[in-house]
């Protein structure tokens, strides 16, 4: 990444995490990113004053929260910019959080009835299967679901997503999408891989993700990103 930047390339990180949950990841990576696309494209910023964002609409937040009230066994994560909280803790949530290992953020519990409309809420992530996701999204006029884990879905604005976040930076810099390369491995990366000039699926990605990519790289543990950049002629 350092060599790519030295050669004039810009490097961005694109994540489903909230800005407040990025620190635990960024602290493990000795790279200063030129910009951050957080919350699945819904909160984009850099060190030079760029800030583009889109939160969930109040009526959709009310619908989702009411649905959760009617399904008291479902745990959900609510994401603001600087604060992320769960409506409750369940065994399923604990199991998923353990899978995050060292990158697992602090767990907060709060009442969405008190916070969700008072503060900008950019993403709500209920622990539901794909069938239930379709039913819930169908109740909300401006919501889509993106999923990188089988246990839960990230509900964001209907016109949002990582591709939208990339588009915000392209407009800021005056670049064309043909000048971009993206690397991803999750279901929430699919629209990004389709949008950028070259979409690269990592070796650990599912077959469904690989099918939407232009190229499949070796895994991260096999230096997949560096080897792909060399293959594309961007690094020696």
* Proportion of residues in β-strands: 15-25%
Radius of gyration from the alpha-carbon trace, in angstroms: 18 Å
- From the N-terminal CA to the C-terminal CA, the straight-line distance is 13 Å
Structural class: alpha/beta
Order of helices and strands: HEHEEEHEEHHEHEEHEHEHEH
The chain-level mean pLDDT equals 94
What's the total count of β strands?
12
**Discrete helix count:** 10
> Strand sequence of the main sheet, in spatial order?
1-2-3-4
Which regions are unreliable across 5 or more consecutive residues at pLDDT < 50? none
Principal-axis shape equals globular
Helical proportion? 25-40%
Largest sheet: 4 strands, mixed
Compile the SSE list and pairings:
Elements: H1 2-6, E1 12-14, H2 23-26, E2 35-38, E3 43-45, E4 51-53, H3 58-70, E5 76-79, E6 84-86, H4 91-99, H5 112-115, E7 123-126, H6 130-138, E8 143-149, E9 152-157, H7 162-173, E10 181-184, H8 190-195, E11 198-201, H9 207-210, E12 215-216, H10 224-231
Parallel strand pairs: 1-2, 10-11, 11-12
Antiparallel strand pairs: 2-3, 3-4, 5-6, 5-7, 8-9
